[in-house]
Amino acid sequence: MTTTTATAPVVAASRRHPKPARRTTHSGIFTVLGVIFLAIMLFPVYWMVNASLQPSGNTLTAEFFPWNPSFAGYERAIADQGANLVTSLVISLGSVVFSIAIAAPAAYALAQFRFRWINAALLAILISQMIPGIVIANALYTAYNDLGLLNSIPGLILADSTHCIPFAILILRASMIGIPPSIVEAARVDGAGLVRAFVSIVVPVSRNAIITAALFSFLFSWSDFLFALTLTTTEGVRPVTLGIYQYLGSQVANWSAVMATAVLSSIPAILLLVLAQRFIAAGAVGGAVK
Amino acid sequence: MSVTTVPPTEVPMSRRRDTPPPARHRRRFTLENVTRILFVVPAGLFLLAFFGYPVVKNVTMSLQEYTTRTFFTGEAPWVGLANYATVVGSQLFSPALINTALFTIGSIAGQFVIGLALAEFFRRKFPLSGFLRSMLLLPWLLPLIVSSATWRMILDRDSGILNETLGSLGIISSPIPWLTSPSVALIAVVLVNIWIGIPFNVTILYGGLQDIPEELYEAGALDGATGWKAFWHITLPNLRPVVSVVLVLGVVYTIKVLDIILGLTNGGPANATQTLSVRSYQESFVNFEFGVGAAYSNILIVISLLFAVIYLRANRRAVDE
User: Fold this and answer.
1) Overall fold of domain B93-273
2) How far is B105 from chain A (nearest CA, A)?
3) B5 chain-A contacts, CB cut-off 8 A
4) Domain boundaries, chain A
5) Which residues of chain B neighbour A34 with C-beta distances below 8 Å?
6) Which residue of A has its CA nearest to B128?
7) Which end of chain B has the lower number of beta carbons within 10 A, N or C?
8) Residue from B298, B45, B256 nearest A139 by CA
């Protein structure tokens, strides 16, 4: 067989010749089936939205559709968790900037420079993705305690970047391997230094891969729960994931507020899936290494 | 080797050049070479500090009596393997080990079978198939704690929609205490984790299926291999490298799952959903026995690395074939 490179899913459109018979006779049935499968898979998401709009705050009386939507849950959620949402946003954005700034040059070096130890470095990056988060949390808690980074936004940005940097390096490298060295060399001949050539040639050419890496880094940091749980001890800095967890401990009587917070925390994922689908598709396949 | 799984995004795949890069300078420490090194130094330092250091620190911590006192006195006496003895001697150790295995195997089996079925289904191009397939990714992109919270509501014994539906359909006569009974809690947690893992499996397996040339099926059809026969004799053998990658990665990522279990059951009821990573978390951050927590972590690392080795071999085979 041909290689299993995952180039295929991304450019899958190129291989599109299923047997015509299959396509014409049954395609309508398949679409109906597909919609049913999707409806089953996404039912929990629907139920989350539905519950967030229920007035009683109690799932016992939940209707299948919020005929009389109430926004009391959202009012409560924003009052309780608004600040945490902002904290999550700041941490996620910080983590995106930090991760891309660190990963992009390294990815370029691993893609185009001829270092002897590149394979060893790639192996280390692959393995680093397999290290359980609790191992990192254990060690960081003690280190952060000494460094005064507990309960701090920079501390969480750095910790969350462990979700992002190895992934970003791998996905960026895979794209930067395809950059023809001649276009960089042309800039070099014109007198640009290596850094300048990287910033003005490599980065623009890799724009799509960088967007993919940035979007996923955002999602990874936004979703982080483990570091939020272990590296904060006060209410000062509290990402919304931890806010939901604490809600679960104390507020299960008020499900509409919990679910309203859950819906608000899902907005980035939903937005990205709808607005940035092609980047997500690329990253999802790259996600094989995540 | 990572190329097996990472797509070369939008950039056209041009062949790598055959001529070496401008290595005209023979001397090692030219400005050029130093700049090149500087491209990787930040990433290298980060990986050392946030992956290398924690691994080493966990090993040393696991050999120390590292408790709340340590944070005040700075003393962490060496205790040899005492923490490991505590772990292995603990009443919770073998249940946690068994739960980890059941959780992992159950999750992977469910995700894989459903994932493969859906991938095979979406392989037929029908109207909206691409759109439906990408919408399927949503459960995978949501924060795990959001999924946990939602499922906790759905699985609620008295007012959850699942019991309500099963009850009104007459499938169950009394509500099932999904998350509150030790005998079903692990099953419930596995079901939720299957739901979360399906999109990942569909995506990767779908990619693998796309790589199987249609001609193979056409040739097979001539020999009478259609339907299930084609699946067994053409699809599965050709998909094998991708399957091994999906399964091993699935294991590596499932073994360390923590968010879902903490969100759904917190390791309860009656320790029915304790796994190695939950134990590690609770020893370190609930009991403040960092030495014992680190010992649990290290056991987890050893298991993960074992599978990492299998993964790398499977992956290499995938590249070779």
Assistant:
1) MetI-like fold (1.10.3720)
2) 18
3) 6, 285-286, 288-289
4) 80-289
5) 121-122, 126, 128-129, 132
6) A31
7) C
8) B298
pLDDT digits (tens, 9 = 90+) for B226-252: 888 899 989 999 998 889 888 888 888
Average pLDDT, whole number, for chain A?
84
φ, ψ (nearest 5 deg) of residue A257: -70, -40
| pLDDT per residue as tens, chain A (290 positions) | 333 333 333 333 334 444 444 445 667 889 999 999 999 999 999 999 998 988 865 555 567 888 888 898 899 999 999 999 999 999 999 999 999 999 999 999 999 988 888 889 998 998 888 899 999 999 999 999 999 999 999 999 999 999 999 999 999 998 899 899 888 888 888 888 889 999 999 999 999 899 999 999 999 999 999 999 999 998 889 999 999 999 888 766 688 899 999 999 999 999 888 887 777 766 666 544 43
The third-level CATH classification (topology) of the domain covering A80-289 is: MetI-like fold (1.10.3720)
* Residues A224-240 as b or e (16 or more Cβ within 10 Å = b): bbbbbbbbbeeeebbbb
Q: In the beta sheet, which residues pair with residue B289?
A: B67
Residues of chain B contacting A266 with CB distance shorter than 8 Å: 142-143, 146
CB–CB contact A284 B137 (8 Å): yes
CA distance B308 to B76: 32
Question: Model confidence over A195-235: pLDDT tens digits?
Answer: 999 999 999 999 989 999 999 999 999 999 999 999 999 88
Q: Among A206, A204, A203, A222, which residue's Cα sits nearest to residue A272? A: A222
Query: Domain map of chain B by residue range?
Result: 93-273
Q: Indicate yes or no: CB of B285 within 8 angstroms of CB of A230.
A: yes
What is the sign of the dihedral through the CA atoms of A112, A115, A116 and A121? negative
**Nearest Cβ partner for B53 among A123, A139, A170:** A139
Interface A–B counts its CB contacts (< 8 A) at 407
Interface with B, mutate which of A2, A5, A119, A170 (most B CBs under 10 A):
A5
